[in-house]
Amino acid sequence: MVVCQVIDIETTKGKEMRKVIGIIGGMGPMATCDLMYQIISNTKADRDQDHVQLLIDNNAAIPDRTEALVRGGPSPLPELIKSAKRLTVAGADALALSCNTSHYFMSELRSSVPIPFISMIGTTVERLRENSIKTVALLATEGLSKVGVYQKELEAAGIRPLVPDEKEQKIVTEVIYDTVKAGMPLRRPERFQSLLDCFRDRGAQKIILGCTELPIAVKEYNFNGDFIDPTYELALEIIRYSGAEVKDS
Fold first, then answer.
1. Contact 62/27 with Cβ under 8 angstroms?
2. Alpha helices of the chain — where are they, by DSSP H?
3. Is 198 in the active site?
4. What domains are there in the chain, each with its CATH number?
């Protein structure tokens, strides 16, 4: 008996060049969904097979990063490493974190698995440098602002970061924790808009939405500002790294 197998050349064309991307998520779950949505919506695709193959570990058991960095809470590193290893075993060729603050633990994560990481922070800073931005406002979690991961990379690229003071940080924290993470309405959105306006008046050419909950709030409440969204920048880098094509803007 002769078995004839018909192969769709167009479907398999270039498939051997595609990379599988693993996303360590759950920080928070809505932000993980936003990253996946941005990857899908920015991929040039005429059919399912043109999209990026993703492995998502929506690990909501990862302890809060700011609690660990600022208030001595449980370290998220053990759970982050578990996720990285799960995704590696599952077949990921590279990993990404759907959380800015978790990049503080990047060196330990990189040493825990044999595959590379695509850095959300590094990608964002590179985009700012390419566009000759010299001054930015950094809106992030209290933890990330205090440990200075973004600030170090920005300053190394010749970019001056402006960060909220203690009173202003409380407004940012309310948007992140009491609103998006808690699934509750923002009580006084005008306070956050005023903060955005203040940073523009202080000379910020761009405002970094340096927590993955912030782009969600910006879309929900139609805040105005000259933003750079690290989730979006990471999504584009994931598409390129995988071997898929970025949709024309």
1. yes
2. 9-12, 29-41, 65-71, 77-90, 106-112, 120-130, 142-147, 149-156, 166-173, 189-201, 214-221, 230-242
3. no
4. 9-119+233-242 (3.40.50.1860), 121-230 (3.40.50.1860)
Number of other CB atoms surrounding residue 95 within 10 Å: 22
Give the SS3 label for residue 196. helix
- In the set 4, 33, 99, 198, the catalytic residue is 99
Buried b (16+ CB within 10 A) or exposed e, 186-210: beebeebeebbeebbeeebbbbbbb
Q: What is the DSSP letter of 202?
A: T
Q: Report pTM.
A: 0.92
Told to judge if 211 belongs to the known catalytic residues of this protein, a careful annotator would answer: yes
209, 227 Cβ separation under 8 angstroms: yes
Q: How far apart are CA 230 and CA 232, in angstroms?
A: 5
Which residue of the set 4, 33, 198, 211 is catalytic? 211
Provide, rounded to the nearest whole percent, the portion of the chain with pLDDT above 90. 92
Tokens of 234: 């990471």
Predicted confidence at residue 249, as pLDDT, reads: 73
The yes-or-no verdict on residue 2 having pLDDT over 70 is no
Task: Put residue 206 in one of left, alpha, beta given phi > 0 → left and psi -120 to 50 → alpha.
Answer: beta
